[in-house]
Amino acid sequence: MILQSIILCGGAGTRLWPLSRQSYPKQFLSLAGDNTLLQDTVARLDGIENISGGEVTFVDPLIVCNEAHRFLVAEQLRMDSRCAQAIMLEPIGRNTAPALTIAALTAMSDGTDPVLIVMPADHVIADAETFRKVVASGAALAADGAVVTFGIVPTAPETGYGYILRGEARGDSAFTLAEFVEKPDAETAQSYLDNGAYYWNSGIFMMKASVWLADIATHRPEIEAACRKAT
Q1: Beta partners for 198?
Q2: If DSSP codes are grouped into helix, strand and coil, which group holds residue 167?
Q3: Beta strand ranges found along 29-84 (DSSP E)
Q4: DSSP character for 66?
């Protein structure tokens, strides 16, 4: 199984202004150690081949960023002795769906159909080893055609995050997804915390490239068509 990371690096990080600003947003800052958030994201899956027992071949990432940040991305990769399969540039940010569609088309351009793990470039994940184990488990589901998302056990009634509701168990470490909920009010967020079946939506997803392209063509055909035209 080929595992291809798609790193979404186009955010402006406005909520951390003035530390994070439009010309130098938070993903390019060292906020949780010596490396920048982007560098940590690129390195996060190092060694996943060993965890998967050799069933996963992890390839260099595809990075989607704002056109103005292309040299920042390239320089931070160089500083960490990393390579990207491609750095794809957005002249204007159009959010996740178009960025992922362009990346999926690029990932399949060599005739393969890799499992994609889609990660924002501005997350902090302290326990990278556990994250790799969870990703290896999710990759098997994604290879079978599932769309996999990762929930975070909430620790507070946070109103700034989206939530996901787990459904029936699917094996030992996964559940069907019963519901996505956008940012709730404080009372609703507290009820989710008390319920125990709701998780914060991490914004990290896995699926085969072909599965994403089929889904986006079904639900948002105008995005799929525009992205094919752009490539």
Answers
A1: 165
A2: strand
A3: 57-66
A4: E
CA atoms of 211 and 124, how far apart (whole Å): 28
> Over 70: is that where the pLDDT of 18 sits?
no
CA angle 231, 140, 205 (to 5 degrees): 50
pLDDT value of residue 12: 64
Contact 1, 113 (CB under 8 A): no
What percentage of the chain reaches a pLDDT higher than 70? Answer: 93
Six token digits for residue 80: 């960490």
Identify which of 51, 71, 49 has the alpha carbon closest to the alpha carbon of residue 59: 49
Note the pLDDT of residue 30.
85
Query: Which CATH superfamily is 2-150+203-230 part of?
Result: Spore Coat Polysaccharide Biosynthesis Protein SpsA; Chain A (3.90.550.10)
Question: Looking at residue 199, what is its pLDDT?
Answer: 96
116 forms beta bridges with 4, 207
| Structural domain boundaries in the chain | 2-150+203-230
Contact 151, 133 (CB under 8 A): no
pTM: 0.89
Helix (H, G, I), strand (E, B) or coil at 138: helix
Separation of CA 152 from chain center: 14
Point out which residues pair with 87 in neighbouring strands.
63
Question: For residue 52, is pLDDT > 90?
Answer: no
Q: What is the pLDDT of residue 50?
A: 80
Rounded distance, CA 148 to CA 212, Å? 11
Query: Which amino acid type is present at position 155?
Result: T
Nearest to 213 by CA among 104, 122, 116: 104
